[in-house]
Fold GNAT family N-acetyltransferase.
Amino acid sequence: MEPVETLALFDREMREHARPGGPGVRVERVGAVVRQTGGADDWNGVVWSAPGLSPADARAEIAAQIEHYTALGIGGFEWKRYAHDGPASLGELLTAAGFEAEPTEALLVAPVADLATGVRLPEGVRLEPVTDAAGVELMVRAHEAAFGTDGSRLRHQALAGLDGPPGTFVAVVALAGDEPVSSARMELHPGTGFAGLWGGGTAKPWRGRGIYRALVAHRSRLAAELGYRHLQVDATDRSAPILRRLGFSTLSTTTPYVYRTTP
């Protein structure tokens, strides 16, 4: 499949016809956008906007989403803007409406059949599946050590994923002895050909030893066993070079525009 065809498929299956990202979350098409709405610790925001959106229509949709999420009192939401989304001025319109742009990430996709699935770990490191609350706590500890940020939202989302429909969420933690040093998760989307890779952060003392690659290979194997055709990643500048070497290609870029409804 050519990159332009893969991107069109991604837009259709993962954005225009997005599935809810957890229990108690709803996805709806309203006007010219598709949005997800949940609780304060869920991901809330716009995942798709109609092609050919005019600047005037974009301003109207932006105002409508601000009104919607502000009325819920959930603190804030995100408009996930892709580089190929129209109008060309969408980023400027979002900024003018009070959104703040966060760092741009690369939309990377790879055919599952082309990816290595052999897991090679440093001596003394093992992978453990996350299947319960205790595993989630290990995952959160690894996340906080890797990124230096609070893992409360990850805790909520991982627990929700474990409680969700079977076959839609996979998480794994890398342990050096009893110390969690890296973790990652995969969100599976039944009815589509895509599975999404998330997380993958490794504590600084353990970087450069192949743990990140092992976590990708582990999830690639699971995706292949479950019949998924493509793996998708929103990659930072740190992880994108590694993923490209593993066989991922850049289809677009995505920039989170965040609107805070409360100070």
In short: The mean pLDDT is 94. The chain is about 35% helix and 30% strand.
